[in-house]
Amino acid sequence: MIPTKNYSACTSMIVGKNASIDGSIMIARNEDSKSSWPKNYVIHPHQEFDTEQEFSSNDNGFKLPLPKVRAKYSATPEWTAKFGLFEEDGINEYGVAMSATESTYTNEYVLGADPLEKDGIGEEAMITVVLPYIKTAREGVKRLGRIIEYYGTSESNGILFADKNEAWYMETGGGHNWVAVKIPDDSYAVIANQTAIQYIDFQDPENYLWSTHIRQFVEDHQLNPDPTGSTFNFRQIFGTATLSDTYYNTPRVWYGLKLFSPDQQHTPVDQDMPFLNQANRKLSVFDVQDFLASHYQGTPYDPIGEGSEADKHRFRPISLAKTQEAHILQIRPSMPTPAAGIQWLAMGVAAQSSFVPFYAGATDTPKQYQNATGSYSPDQAYWTYKLAGTLVDPHYVKFGPKLSETQKQLRIAFQQSIQAADKVVRGLSNVEQADFLTKINFENSQEGLNAYNSLISDLVTNATDLSPLNFKQDVNL
Length: 477
Known about the structure:
Elements: E1 11-15, E2 25-32, E3 42-44, E4 47-48, E5 53-56, E6 63-66, E7 69-70, E8 73-75, E9 89-91, E10 97-103, H1 108-113, H2 123-130, H3 137-151, E11 157-162, E12 167-173, E13 177-182, E14 188-191, E15 208-210, H4 214-220, H5 234-238, H6 243-248, H7 250-260, H8 285-292, H9 309-312, E16 323-331, H10 337-340, E17 341-347, E18 356-359, H11 381-392, H12 396-425, H13 430-463
Antiparallel strand pairs: 1-2, 1-14, 2-16, 3-8, 4-7, 5-6, 9-10, 10-11, 11-12, 12-13, 13-15, 16-17, 17-18
């Protein structure tokens, strides 16, 4: 029997619209769990039911009544629903993006006062019961917040929301408490399996949201370590700062700040790195891709670099073999809603895959992205990208440049495709837009698969002479 999944390993990034090069808002995450656990990419159509619906989790038995109207939304569910849906990320018909979840941890002191609810809402259910029922990012925070307060949550998580106006990051703490911060337009944030949100300003509900009784809860249970009692630092009150954090979590945040805010002076094991930051330049979707695909390049800690063996394996990298998929949900306010959202999706390991752009206004996804199986199949997108990485792995020095060239050429091709499609879509009706964007998505998908199948052919051909069952004959014999 396949064991249930241990969700504890994602890395996230959020970029405000004035912090990006083109005015986009971006929320992004690596979904990390197992080295072979395929994902699908689907679009659920708009549906209106005669009776109230109910969600029932295969994961922990969580149940929730649902509205009769379900908006269209995209998602990346598991290849099997046996252990739950885990739809993870998507964009709905109103242009709202959501990514759930960044697994975090609540400290024992808080859990002693507010334990997790075994049958409360968890990662498995969040996209499914929230994204189809909201029209703004703020609504998403509030809907999920109400669910957590009433039903409780079975785990600690960070959840990302965005729409054409703003991005929000929400974190849960204990079984029933949560806070959320609107990301300033000029800022970015990187998060890595640790409670990240710091100060909450309860006098500013425009930029902060929180569970109804969180201040009273903290006061009643004497949880605030601030000796003055004048500040409310969610990270310090609810989070952890353990030795395992310094090897597993903080180095990833450090590397993000090293890439985008190099003037800041931190070490990989610092526990006080800021949640909100300003970059030294405007950030593009390629910057976010590079972060999600990174593994400490240019430092002694790169697992495929030139550091000592101890340093190469000292810290958990950002992109690793257990990534199921990586996504960037890009909202472009200047475009009509169907074309405003682009779901950049890299199946498998981000460092070895390519981010394929999918317009949110499409009505269907390519067959290669649906009905994945748990074992290798050459006609499935997840396994195609996974195979290329597997072939590169044993010969990274020799084959890495071939992989990099393929990724580079696809970046150029996808950028050209988006620019050309953007010019056409503005002049189309709603129905024409949906059909056109679906066509473009299918073309981009096929472009990526063709490039990787060509790469696979090249890798297999060149690997035939790398067998240990080889012999070099002396020319003098």
